[in-house]
Design brief:
Blueprint (H helix, E strand, L loop, with lengths): L1 H24 L1 H9 L1 E10 L10 E6 L8 E6 L5 E8 L4 E6 L3 E2 L1 E5 L10 E2 L2 E2 L4 E6 L1 E2 L7 E8 L7 E4 L4 E2 L11 E7 L10 E6 L6 E6 L21 E9 L2 E5 L5 E11 L5 E16 L5 E10 L12
Parallel strand pairs: 1-10
Antiparallel strand pairs: 1-4, 2-3, 2-5, 5-7, 6-11, 8-9, 12-22, 13-14, 13-15, 15-16, 16-18, 17-20, 18-19, 20-21, 21-22
């Protein structure tokens, strides 16, 4: 049975390879990759609620083999929120930028010639012809001044929970100048750098009463894709784990899920009846851990912290 499965898998692999090789060696395809072929892209612009956005500016880079030969096509979305782009490209890069006054711009890249995913060229046209590209732009609502950080921090101790102050952007005493812990981390590490370690793990926990986080799915490609505001009624989780390790020689990372961010509630105070009186809110876009050759481990974190108690706004001023 194992031999049969192996033979079938080998046959399918050879078939895919033959198809890709035939396409690569096709004269029409080679000419399109060298000199370009016509492409048609239907850009469909919507807001957060799926409503078509009329009058949005569409700025499209039509990529050629050399950047100096690339060119731009500009247009405006119609009453259906669409704009049809037609032009010659070698297929390696089409970059679409959608913008409108009072909205956050959105960017998306399209490629007709990804390695291993070669597209067909038929009658001098890239296929599929008229491919629809959905894009979402979001209104500028109420941006406020937030504490924004994207930095590496040396983790001072292994195997012990230490607090991190997001307002001060530092560890709490005795490891730093932080005054209040918004969350805690506990490092598990064998002391080896990322290319040698079997596991470097960072447990992130929220120990305060009502402190915690929930996951938010970001809007892909948008300049501001995170949560506009925290939801105090949401269920908040108490812990998560991020790690870096090697699997079959390949460095592998876990942490905040791709395309997501964490909405965080911390510094919570409750009254005698257990009702939430005060809290601070923030967004963590990324958190990761890594062992370094110098014998230290570092935490990479990117976050937006609102220092005003009970202000749920998480839309950063730019």
């Amino acid at each position: 049975m194992i031999k049969t499965i192996s033979c079938v898998a080998l046959y399918l692999l050879m078939l895919l390879f033959d198809q890709a090789l035939a396409q690569k060696s096709d004269a029409v395809y080679r000419d399109a990759r060298k000199n370009g072929a016509e492409a048609c892209v239907v850009v469909k612009v919507e807001d957060d609620k799926g409503t078509p956005v009329v009058g949005a500016t569409v700025h499209v880079l039509m990529g050629m083999n050399f950047r100096t030969k690339s060119y731009f096509i500009d247009g405006v979305t119609d009453t259906n929120g669409t704009y049809i782009v037609k032009g010659k490209t070698t297929g390696n890069e089409i970059e679409i930028v959608v913008s409108k006054t009072g909205w956050y711009e959105s960017v998306q890249k399209l490629c007709f010639s990804k390695m291993g995913e070669e597209h067909e060229v038929k009658d001098g046209k890239w296929q599929p012809w008229g491919v629809e590209v959905p894009m979402r732009i979001r209104r500028v609502v109420n941006p406020v001044r937030l504490i924004c950080k994207h930095e590496f921090y040396t983790i001072p101790v292994v195997g012990k929970a230490i607090g991190f102050d997001m307002e001060k952007s530092d560890w709490t005493a005795p490891y730093g100048h932080g005054e209040r812990s918004d969350f805690y981390v506990t490092l598990s590490w064998d002391g080896k750098p990322m290319y040698d370690t079997r596991q470097t793990e960072l447990a992130v926990s929220f120990q305060g009463d009502r402190d915690g986080y929930y996951e938010y799915s970001n809007v892909r490609g948008c300049a501001f894709g995170g949560a506009y505001a925290a939801d105090p009624r949401h269920h908040y989780e108490k812990s998560m784990t991020c790690s870096s390790k090697r699997i079959d020689g390949v460095p592998t990372y876990t942490g905040v899920r791709p395309g997501c961010s964490l909405v965080v509630r911390s510094r919570c105070r409750v009254d005698a009846e257990g009702h939430l009186v005060s809290a601070n809110y923030s967004t963590i876009r990324a958190v990761a851990v890594e062992g370094e050759p110098e014998g230290i481990a570092t935490m990479l974190i990117r976050y937006f912290y609102n220092p005003t108690p009970n202000d749920t706004n998480l839309e950063p001023a730019r």
